[in-house]
Amino acid sequence: MPSIWRPDLPSSEITPEGLYLRRRDFLAGGAAAATGLTFGLAGCKPKVVAPPAELPALPGATKPGPFGTAEPRTPYKDVTTYNNFYELGTDKSDPAANADRLKTRPWTVAFEGEIAKPQVIDIDALIARFPLEERVYRLRCVEAWSMVIPWVGFPLGPLIKQLEPTSRAKYVAFTTKLAPDEMPGQKTSALEWPYVEGLRMDEALHPLTILAVGLYGRVLPNQDGAPVRLVVPWKYGFKSIKSIVRVRFVETQPPTSWNRQNAHEYGFYSNVNPEVDHPRWSQANERRIGELRRRVTLAFNGYGNEVAGLYAGMDLRKNF
């Protein structure tokens, strides 16, 4: 049976999307063994996971960037132990439990496609290329929970301009690392691997869009998408792809993982829109992690003044 949303339903009780989509396999029996899916199912007692050891500080990480919110920040422990990162497991506690398997050095990011200057950049050289700043952004997940996270990173736009996109570059496609031995979730069929995402060029160039390499002034924990992830704060969290290894500039709209998995429920744009419900629960309100009362969801996650103009004239119900 599909999940039934109710206002007091904690997101920890929502069946993970990949498991829901494979429910017939589980009813038939034997699917977990066949796919290697060993992560806990919804309703099982979650693992108790300690926050990671203190990670190194990032130089310049306390310089405040623009657009930040003054709302209370979600505690570091919650940000690092309650995660959606299916490559490391489908339960919220799995990414922290499996984080030490992911190797983030050496690491390079390839920039390819419709650009004049294709290149492969070592992650540390990439971090050194741009001044780091702190961006305190809201993160809104499609499961109707949210956080406020002090990301450390730099805007994607200046990097794109250095790569000199051609006139044919209309979209930017991102790819996550594929390493099943390090990312045990990739041994399952929860999604088609590797994880892929995409933005329209004007979305990627928008000054709100950043590449994050840390949070709370320190190196980005593996369970939060180390060593580099996208953060697009006006879209649902799954658009902010983690552990990026490839960025490709393309002429046509690229495939994205959740849209490919279930286009009826996950559109390409995935802007936070309280008026467009997920088929199995409302998006009109959300549960901020650490708070008891639910709060009203803001259009574009509260960043409408900055980004609404990108979608002028578009039907945001059709283009969800």
Note down, in words, how this protein is organized.
The chain is of the alpha+beta class and 320 residues long. It has a single domain, classed as Oxidoreductase, molybdopterin-binding domain (Sulfite Oxidase, Chain A, domain 2, Alpha-Beta Complex), CATH 3.90.420.10. The chain is built from 10 helices and 12 strands. It has helices at 17-21, 23-28, 31-35, 76-81, 94-98, 123-129, 156-163, 201-205, 257-261, 304-307, and strands spanning 108-113, 119-122, 133-140, 145-155, 171-176, 196-200, 210-215, 218-219, 229-231, 244-250, 285-288, 295-296. Strands 3, 4, 7, 8, 9, 11 and 12 form a 7-stranded mixed β-sheet that branches. Strands 2-1-10-5-6 form a 5-stranded mixed β-sheet. A hairpin with a 4-residue loop joins strand 3 and strand 4 (145-155). The longest helix has 8 residues, at 156-163. The radius of gyration is 19 Å and the shape is globular. The two termini are 25 Å apart. Residues 1-46 have low confidence and may be disordered.
